[in-house]
Amino acid sequence: MKIALLGHGNVGSGVSAIIDKGNTSFTEQLKIKKILVKDESEATDERMVFNIDDALDNDIDIVVECLGGLKFPFACISKALNMKKHVVTSNKKVMATYYDELISLAKKNDVNIVFEASVGGGIPIMSNIRHTKRVDKINSFIGIFNGTTNFILDKMSKEKQGFKEALIQAQKLGYAESNPSDDIDGCDVKYKCCLTGNMVWDTSLNLDDITTFGIRTVSQKDIDFAINHQLTLKLVGRGIKTEGQVQVFVLPEYISNDDTLAHIPLNLNCIVFKSDNLGATSYIGQGAGTFPTAHAVVQDIVSLLNNENLKISTDNKVDINNREYISKFYIRTENLEYFKDYIYKKIASDVIITEPINLFKLKDLIEKTDDKNLFVAGVCYD
Amino acid sequence: MKIALLGHGNVGSGVSAIIDKGNTSFTEQLKIKKILVKDESEATDERMVFNIDDALDNDIDIVVECLGGLKFPFACISKALNMKKHVVTSNKKVMATYYDELISLAKKNDVNIVFEASVGGGIPIMSNIRHTKRVDKINSFIGIFNGTTNFILDKMSKEKQGFKEALIQAQKLGYAESNPSDDIDGCDVKYKCCLTGNMVWDTSLNLDDITTFGIRTVSQKDIDFAINHQLTLKLVGRGIKTEGQVQVFVLPEYISNDDTLAHIPLNLNCIVFKSDNLGATSYIGQGAGTFPTAHAVVQDIVSLLNNENLKISTDNKVDINNREYISKFYIRTENLEYFKDYIYKKIASDVIITEPINLFKLKDLIEKTDDKNLFVAGVCYD
Fold first, then answer.
1. Is the pLDDT of residue A177 over 70?
2. What is the mean pLDDT of residues A348-365?
3. In Å, how far is B299's CA from the nearest CA of chain A?
4. In what order do the strands lie in the sheet with A86-89?
5. Chain A interface residues facing chain B, Cβ-Cβ under 8 Å?
6. Which regions in chain B score pLDDT beneath 50?
7. Domain B2-125+292-305, CATH
8. A244 — pLDDT class (breaks 50, 70, 90)
9. According to the CATH classification, is domain B136-286+318-379 in 3.40.47.10?
10. Residue B31 to residue B60: CA distance in whole angstroms
11. Among B45, B325, B331, B366, which one is most buried in terms of CB atoms within 10 A?
12. Any idea which residues of B carry the catalytic annotation?
């Protein structure tokens, strides 16, 4: 299999390292012919080229996109598909944003587009979704999809670090995305939930319908609430299927310490699927990092090499209806008066637990407070 | 695909339920033609037959063994392989005991024998080992492979139940194997570690070389030691590869509460693989039960249907050398004098932590005490 690798940064350099080494019977059948980098200054190898047309020559079987970003990778992937080349990408933003377009383009050109590395890094999420669905129906998922925010919350909880201090440490360790707002505002998790939901339910979810709250405003007070109640605060993404529709959202949640999800440390990811036969099955591992992510990319390439059925269906039309998700919520705000009709329990002068309300109502009330420092989290325990 | 199902108990009845329902594009292609049960008294279906020769007619493609036991299932599987039929089994004891014979017999007859359900119940352990190995090298595994003992230790730890009380509850809930000694003495975990090690390292491990300690003698005192030191007592199976040899053993261990493995509740299983690219990847789910286990059996059948490469290699000859595994150990015995030269720390009049010693030395000292109530556990923290 002849490969054009687009991008040679964090992920791309791992992909070329694993393939060039070729130390399994599968990876030894792979050959990287071209590597697209920005310009001469990044060229460290004779395979390196500086524009996309030089990378996509007729000889290439598979195009591997590890560029990051949105418009340029979208253009490159589209071009590759139109040239009838299989595409492997680690780019969750491109896949979640242009899912319908890219899946149809692949279908039209009778090639595959695969994106194992875009969700859960090295954890084999997509291959296990495909595997489970052969025999079973997946009804819901819940997961810690973002290592940076898990690292921050873990450090704030176990070592009483401040939010900023923990974020800086995460960036130093290379966990945080280039733009930390994608992490801390929950967008990164939104993309991943979108892709997970699409694969689980053979659909194409509307990214904008995924209600998303992040942890930008979390304070030690919110962490202490967890500690005092045998709970752990985690940023989770969830998908739940009900009759003919789904609920998909991103939300900090107070998780019971009896739940394994409460005990996922540092920058690890954990994704849990509930299905008819299996009950809950959880997958834990490195959600980012050069070699775990590159490993996932190479797995996709090997699946193409093995001629596996990687066709993706979007035939099952389901709408996201988060009005159906009802929960109690922890709210910390200086403007509690907007919640006065929905108080289940008063915790402090600026903290309440709401009565069970739906996610739309919640969003509406939060917008009314106009409080940029408001913190909200789901409360699932009783 | 035409299937003969041998056994219609806990697992077999789940297999026929999933296949007869046939509600995925894969399971609808499967057909159970014969079901072997003991006699007329168990016949609830016109497909049922009472002797193996009636089950294995020429029409059958796949034989699914869910009988339990050792000699009779071994005879049935051997007969099926010799008739050039693929075999799927959930029987860890048969597989671990006759691994070499069965793998060679399958090879000789150019058919496959697969056993996903024999380790970790519904958790896709074998398929993920196969998957990971395509790109990476697995260096070690550690796991909670037995739900019954995990349930007992969890109940003793969280609810201060006595050992017997917790065991009876596990039996009532249907978790305990027919013979609880296979669970509590660690044999069940031994079989599973043997099969896991065989698959991970393409070898055929000698079952008798797997050093095995169980939890039959565990007391509330041993549980309290964990609680007082932010540890959790778990029965784990481990495999570790070093240069040209492996260490494989079954041992209660005090696990740090910082480790996710310490937080696997009730009867769940958790198996962790460490590999070059991925670091640690963990799989958690139902390790037993009708539908999880039956799901795993049906997954194997679908893999055969899809003509996947399921060939098993035993070409990599490696010996188990547990003399190389060195650790501190918690020892509770009335006969502590045998350990007097190896004391790292005295905990109580009948409890010590040893200096780091190897597993052979440990076994030797334990045998010398001749104390049937001795309890031993690994101590990995510092």
1. no
2. 97
3. 7
4. A48-49, A31-36, A2-6, A62-65, A86-89, A113-114
5. 18, 23-24, 26-27, 122-124, 127-128, 131-137, 258, 260, 262-265, 268, 276-286, 291-292, 294-295, 298-299, 302, 306
6. none
7. 3.40.50.720
8. confident
9. no
10. 10
11. B331
12. 192
